Amino acid sequence: MAEPIVLKDTILLLDSYSQNAIRLHESFLRAGCSCSVVVLEEDPFLPEGVMSVYDLFLGYFQEEGRQLGKPRFFNEIPVPDHWSIHAGVGEADYGRITCQHEEKGRIYYWESPKKWLVKTVDWLDGRGGVRFRDHYNRYGAVYARTCYDNQGREQGRTWLTAAGQEAIVENAVTGDLIVNDKELVKFFRHKRDMMLYFLNRAGAGRRQICYNSLGDPFWISGRLDPSSKRDILFWQEAVEEGIPESMQGILEGRAPRTGKVLLQKRGACGSWAGLGADGARAGRLGYIYDFKKENGHGSEALICTNSERIEHCEELIRAFPGMHFHIAAVTLMSPKLMSLDAYSNVSLYPCVQQPMLDKLFLCCDYYFDINHWTEIVSAVYQAFLHKQLIFAFSETIHNREYVADAHVYPVGEFDRMVSDVKEVMEDGEALERHLRLQLEDAMAEEGQAYLEALCCGG
Questions:
Q1: 126-147: pLDDT as tens digits
Q2: Strands 84-86 and 50-52
Q3: How far is residue 340's CA from residue 350's CA, in Å, rounded to a whole number?
Q4: Is the pTM of this model over 0.85?
């Protein structure tokens, strides 16, 4: 087996590399917090700098500080002479491996901007059934193989080292796992017990664990070396009906290692005080965002929509002849929307492409989240990152997390929205005050807050 990866003093332990997990990791990086990022979910295509818990044992993450390889392209799959590989075109979402027109295998791809990167290959028997599935990782290696019986039922999976040696064997029927660790053979009933073994083997018990779930990460934290209470739970969900029992144990000081809970969702913070949380062990900490620009105090406004129903749109255009409204859609626009082109302070962008959207987010300083139906292009989040002042109706708002409560109005209070927009357009100090309010409600943080939180974990 590969030697254990040397982990940093702080470990960010995540169930999966979800969007919230990514924002937490990026906040650590922007604050200059050095950490190792370990994901419990099996994910062979994690980005560089992030490792699966399996990497701790299989050794694919790094070798003497260098990357081992790159993702495998479809035509790089090893096949016998005279076999053919077809990428897959048209409606087919998989490639094919054939020999004299007989299908021998199917290639499934990883979702990536770069096409045709291999995720798995199914090898077929003479009847077209899957007998083996090879799993490829981000380094282009077969890191695991799943076998099936002649009825297509999964029988087990074997994980392989970079040298192709059997490292982990799972019985799909019983769930038992066997780990070959050099001269040791370890037996586990559950995957999380195996993960705990990998983390202990890598020295995680001597590190600070920061985690974002009361599932397996919390369970693992509670079973590592309990010599200090430095671990921190970053809670990224709502607190609706009460504090979860396991979190209550942290707040009462009963968790073996976790000394603090940090809330990262605005709604949870609003409920926190009324639930009797101990302020000594609970706090709030948002994210550090990568803002793209400062607000330029200009008079350009953006609306992104794929619906012709834009609440009070024409009234807003007439109320602010000095503001230029850019209305963008990734589809064709209806005649009703196209008729707005009659106003000199309106520009329309049907079937808008990404380069133009990028320019619009950069040039505009206001965003109106007033379109009905679904949000497109993560517009509210993008407006927030571009420091646009965001206004919305409670009936149309798509992502309240990034909009200040004071900037959300019932449709019936349109006149109040107009009054507030007029104030910030005429008074630069008022605009800056409202922008600060937007940042505060979105829980935007500075790097120092993260550094202090990690130092005060216990």
A1: 999 999 999 999 888 899 999 9
A2: unpaired
A3: 12
A4: yes
